[in-house]
Specification:
The chain is an alpha/beta fold and 333 residues long. It contains eleven helices and 16 strands. 30% of the residues lie in helices and 20% in strands. It binds guanosine-5'-triphosphate, inosinic acid and magnesium ion.
Length: 333
């Protein structure tokens, strides 16, 4: 903090939702703001018995004092947004930028079949076709939609006002570095750049407005949909290792491979990362489940973390030891 950007280091689904949710409660930012593509993202957040699935609102909503904002670079499906606002009871503190693009039925129809679905493995959320219309400058904007009127603001102005008065803001990226339209495994990527710079552009922060960039890595690599995955394991091996996961948005089985040190190094470079959050350490090392102190980790888990730090030259400052928001080891100063 004061401004921390959290982004995915692999192919999305690294557990950013849980990390952001923890930071939103621990650091008490004034604003949690979402950049990234659109409702193709899906975060799962577990808080005690409760399990939340979020596609549009920032994952920091569990902090009831934080303003929840969506930047103009994000395309919105009003139906999904309204449903989440109602489900999470956030109508008085949800704010979206006047210039957010709007996903309509025509976009989800195009996404539901054909090349995008079959070749790219698109989520079917209409995000890509809406961004294509944005590039063609035919896309509707949030300020044209009657039902969104109560939430409209100038997000960039609010963020800069907060920074000027030395208040903390938490910036939430979606997807992951190698799903970036520029730096990812094109064409098997979403329709936006989702590295830290792209996320900042989505919300109106300049390169000098960012204090910390936290890249989130999972303890193994997963990928949902098509596109290369080096070292991909056969599905029976994935389930034998206990690495089976299904997509939050599509319910598809996630493909998996071992932690990729080369990809991690490149993600650090592309995002100018200052910190690493490592999730699902408990899945690789079950003896570490629910631990809250580094000293309580097993020797092999500690060695794995040291190897990540040595090969990337960046400190691992948050370690996920379970799906719960408080299943975490916080090593930040
Ligand atoms: P995208 O924005 O779609 O890329 O999603 P995401 O990065 O927020 O991840 P998503 O919620 O789709 O998937 C991560 C899953 O891992 C969720 O089910 C989380 O509850 C779970 N999870 C996160 N951190 C940990 C952890 O440290 N240990 C365990 N066991 N589960 C975790
Ligand atoms: P689209 O953005 O729905 O067109 O999806 C393009 C590609 O990115 C597909 O392979 C999707 O599975 C993948 N993708 C999009 N959003 C996410 C995400 O949030 N997590 C993981 N994969 C994603
Ligand atoms: Mg996800």
């Amino acid at each position: 903090m004061p401004s921390t950007v959290v982004v995915g280091g692999f192919f999305g689904d690294e557990g950013k939702g849980k990390i952001i949710s923890y930071l939103a409660q621990k650091d008490d930012p004034k604003i949690v703001v979402r950049g990234g593509a659109g409702p193709n993202a899906g975060h799962t957040i577990e808080d005690g018995e409760k399990k939340y699935k979020v596609r549009m609102l920032p994952s920091g909503f569990l902090n009831k004092n934080a303003g929840l904002m969506i930047g103009p670079g994000v395309v919105i499906n009003p139906e999904v947004l309204h449903k989440e606002i109602e489900e999470f009871g956030t109508s008085t503190r949800t704010f979206i930028d006047n210039n957010c693009g709007i996903i309509e039925k025509t976009h989800t129809d195009v996404d539901a079949g054909g090349r995008l679905k079959e070749k790219i493995g698109s989520t079917g959320s209409g995000t890509g076709p809406a961004n294509a219309d944005r590039a063609l400058r035919t896309l509707k904007m949030a300020k044209e939609i009657q039902s969104l009127k109560p939430y409209l603001i100038d997000v960039a102005e609010q963020l800069h006002n907060a920074l000027d008065s030395e208040q903390n803001i938490l910036v939430e990226g979606t997807q992951g570095t190698f799903l970036s339209l520029w730096h990812g495994t094109y064409p098997y990527v979403p329709s936006k750049d989702v590295t830290a710079s792209g996320i900042c552009a989505d919300i109106g922060l300049g390169p000098k407005n960012v204090d910390d960039v936290m890249v989130v890595f999972k303890s193994y690599v997963t990928r949902v949909g098509t596109g290369t995955l080096d070292g991909e394991l056969p599905m029976d091996e994935v389930s034998k290792r206990g690495w089976s996961e299904v997509g939050t948005v599509t319910g598809r089985q996630r493909r998996a491979a071992e932690f990729d040190f080369n990809l991690a190094k490149r993600a650090i470079m592309l995002n100018s990362a200052t910190q690493i959050a490592l999730t699902k350490l408990d899945v690789l090392f079950p003896e570490c489940a629910h631990k809250n102190s580094f000293d309580d980790l097993s020797l092999s888990a500690k060695k794995f973390i040291t190897r990540i730090e040595d090969s990337t030259d960046v400190a691992v400052t948050l370690i996920g030891t379970g799906p719960g928001v408080n299943d975490i080891i916080d090593l930040r100063e």
